[in-house]
Write a structure and sequence with these properties.
Length: about 110
């Protein structure tokens, strides 16, 4: 292996390592999401299945959708619901990511093969 090949190999390994660290540092944590989502359980249930009619089930929802919805409630512009805005206001971006991960991993109602 000549010097150019060695440098290319070392650069490739370092690049992959850096991207892995960045991805890991920003990865959502479902366990933390469950902890932070405890206040959500009163309406949406710990299983993500709503306890009352008119309240959406969150279990099995698309993670990106849940994140966008929580951001919209937090900002109070695109989605306006006094209860949800109040619940989302104190959430950090990381909290939102973790909560969305938690609910997205739960089996949707009637989804027996998840």
């Amino acid at each position: 292996m000549n010097m150019t090949q060695r440098c290319t190999t070392v650069f490739s390994v370092l690049t992959i390592g850096c991207f892995s660290l960045i991805t890991t540092a920003h990865a959502a944590d479902a366990a933390e999401g469950k902890k932070r989502a405890a206040v959500c359980f009163a309406c949406h249930g710990e299983s993500g299945i709503a306890r009352s009619p008119g309240i959406p089930n969150l279990a099995g929802q698309n993670r990106d959708y849940l994140e966008k919805a929580l951001h919209a409630y937090r900002e109070g512009q695109q989605r306006q619901d006094p209860t949800m805005t109040a619940m989302a206001k104190p959430l950090s971006d990381k909290d939102i990511s973790n909560i969305a991960m938690y609910f997205s991993l739960l089996p949707a109602q009637g989804d027996s093969h998840r």
